[in-house]
Specification:
The chain is mainly alpha-helical and about 350 residues long. It is built from 17 helices and no strands. Helix 2 runs parallel beside helix 3, helix 9 runs antiparallel to helix 13 and helix 13 runs antiparallel to helix 14. The N and C termini lie far apart (about 55 Å). The N terminus is likely disordered.
């Protein structure tokens, strides 16, 4: 039986489809990248600018019908301000497209908006440089920082980076207050010995002692603790079957260990610490992980919990789980290539 052709989309339908799909993609990307050092939604702004330019170029009569808002720098914006700015830009495209005669819209633009589901069918990728510069033990140590390497589309098998040094330095200073050797070592020490997991772990212990059902509304709303954020994340992980109640992490330590490994790498690349100090940090990360976890899966779930509890954002929790699942499943993943704890083999 022949497949029926889809009905052509009207400009109004294309406008609504484009706004809904791109807004959803931007909100997801903001949730995943926002507040992760150095990886905010700058590429989305560039994509939005190109999309608007293409729309003006390809839709006759669009230019001048409504005023195109100026693309703004989002670096100083809060996530909510950035989302509002993107929404205004998308509303501009939708409004302008809705005014156009369907017969005047180019096939390229129709195809672009007619295949939005495919356009935003996103899948996390694991990037390997394959330069052979690291030993097997060194590659294994780097694997403890893999979730953020996947998140930032950076190499999982090389100390070298695909990002500009100026971007890394700006990110370290703006997001971590790291600009020299002293601040780099202080931040690494904090992540290894306290970090964000300390407060989260207190709430996890309380949940284990009294049960989720006995956490009061007052406790959930207490802004002085992480109770609300932790409970929101735990509910998400259990409701979505990320793990069973028995396998629920008792610590968010991996969230800090993953970041410590990456801070060590970034600060070495920026010249703040030397190579020996970088590898010493990664060795300390590995030893702490081996002490507290039994497998890459357990380590990954702890990262997921910590990432979600950091701000109580279920989208961030979901994105972290997708990354961890990718690392646990894809053949090119270092988690598939190296044992978590060789000494237990």
């Amino acid at each position: 039986m022949a497949k029926e052709a889809n009905n052509p989309m009207s400009p109004e339908e294309m406008a609504k489809a484009s706004q809904d799909a791109i807004k959803a993609a931007m909100e997801q990307a903001q949730a995943l990248y926002g507040n992760i050092p150095g990886f905010q939604a700058f590429d989305l702004a560039k994509m939005q600018e190109k999309l608007m330019a293409d729309a003006v170029a390809n839709i006759p009569g669009m230019e001048g019908k409504v005023q195109q808002p100026e693309i703004e720098d989002t670096s100083a914006m809060s996530p909510e301000e950035a989302r509002n700015m993107y929404s205004q830009q998308l509303d501009f495209i939708g409004h302008a497209m809705a005014q156009c005669d369907p017969d005047m819209i180019s096939d390229d633009v129709k195809n672009m908006f007619g295949n939005l589901d495919e356009m935003f069918d996103f899948e996390w990728e694991i990037e390997n440089k394959n330069d052979g510069k690291l030993t097997i033990p060194q590659q294994r140590l780097l694997a403890f920082g893999a979730p953020l390497l996947v998140l930032s589309s950076d190499y999982v098998d090389s100390i070298e980076t695909s990002h500009e040094m100026s971007t890394l330095k700006e990110m370290l200073e703006d997001s971590w207050d790291v600009s020299d050797r002293a601040s780099a070592l202080e931040t690494i020490d904090w992540l290894l010995n306290e970090g964000h997991h300390a407060e989260v772990d207190k709430v996890l212990a309380e949940i284990a002692a009294k049960g989720m059902e006995n956490i009061s509304e007052e406790e959930l709303q207490d802004e002085e603790t992480k109770t609300g954020e932790v409970c929101t994340t735990v509910w998400k992980m259990l409701d979505e079957d990320y793990c069973s109640a028995e396998d629920l992490p008792v610590t968010a330590l991996a969230w800090d260990l993953v970041r410590a490994a990456n801070i060590a790498r970034w600060t070495y690349l920026c010249g703040y610490i030397n190579e020996q100090e970088m590898w010493q940090t990664m060795q300390a990360v590995a030893e702490s992980a081996e002490e507290h976890f039994a497998s890459w899966n357990a380590y990954g779930l702890s990262f997921v919990l910590g990432r979600g509890a950091w701000q109580g954002d279920t989208d961030q929790c979901e994105g972290a789980y997708e990354i961890v699942s990718t690392l646990l499943e894809k053949a090119e993943s270092p988690w598939m290539q190296f044992e978590f704890n060789p000494s237990n083999g």
